Amino acid sequence: MSPTFFLSPVQGLLRSRRLVWELTKREVSGRYRGASLGVFWSLISPFLLLMIYTFAFGSVMGGRWPEPRAAGTHFSVVLFAGLIPYFVLSECMVRAPDLVVGNPAFVKRVVFPLEILPWPMLLSALFHCLMNTLVFVALRLVLDGAFDWTIVFLPLVVLPLAVLSLGVAWFLASLAVYLRDIQQVIGMASMALLFLSSVMVPSEAVPAKYQSVFRLNPVSFIADQAREVMIWGHLPDWSGLLRYLIMALVVMYAGHAWFVHTKRGFADVL
């Protein structure tokens, strides 16, 4: 394979980096446009969502993290550490089907590098990941009075999931042009990834016949690794992250190749 193939997913980003930057700023600011608190909602929203999950699963359903090492850690902290990486994939999945369908002018009326559309969405998701991490640090200091320096490895833990999210976004953005029903299904698929992963409960705590479902979920391993560096004070599983990254790169290259191949027909369908 030529070097051009290996660089193809990032070529659009490098050539149109100013455009990607402007679109990313629009993605972030546009979400809170008109709100009195503006971008501060990126800090408030995850906190409110965490309160709902904690009340539902920690109080009403009596959820407790079953691992012995979590005995001195508040349930909200353990739950939120798993939710942070999940939100990255979920945001990309839910919003990807509308990237092309929601911007027909980019397809029909102007010369626009359509393949860059997932980049601003991913960068926006990573920005909110950073905001969620700041909320997590504050929450843990208040509830547990603890802080682990190994949290500095969190970007390396999230990186393979971000690469996977980019590939999934290219696939979904293209498929949604030809199969509009995918927009109705993807929200449920995102919720399934949440509740069938170790974000909510460790894989070891579910019945043996269902553990394979949890472990094959692409969110589970990253959620577990996020807790390792954010709460348990351990270094990441480097070999596991490398294997995950290789898999994610395959998905990314395949997603990009599929998008480039199918975009020729976008104008005929939209």
What does this structure look like?
Helix 3 packs across helix 7 (118-143), helix 4 packs antiparallel against helix 9 and helix 8 (154-178) runs parallel beside helix 12 (238-262). This protein has helices at residues 3-15, 17-31, 41-60, 75-95, 98-101, 104-108, 118-143, 154-178, 182-195, 208-216, 218-230, 238-262, 266-269. It contains 13 helices and no strands. The mean pLDDT is 84. It is globular, with a radius of gyration of 19 Å. It has 270 residues and is mainly α. It has one domain (3-269).
What key phrases describe this protein's structure?
single chain, 270 residues, mainly alpha, 13 helices, globular
Distance between the termini: 33 Å
Q: What portion of the residues fall into strands of 2 or more residues?
A: under 5%
Estimate the mean pLDDT confidence: 84
Number of strands: 0
Largest sheet: none
Contiguous runs where pLDDT drops below 50 for at least 5 residues? none
Helix content: over 70%
Q: Tell me the count of domains.
A: 1
Secondary structure class reads mainly alpha
- What string, H for helix and E for strand, traces the elements in order? HHHHHHHHHHHHH
Number of helical elements? 13
C-alpha Rg, in Å?
19 Å
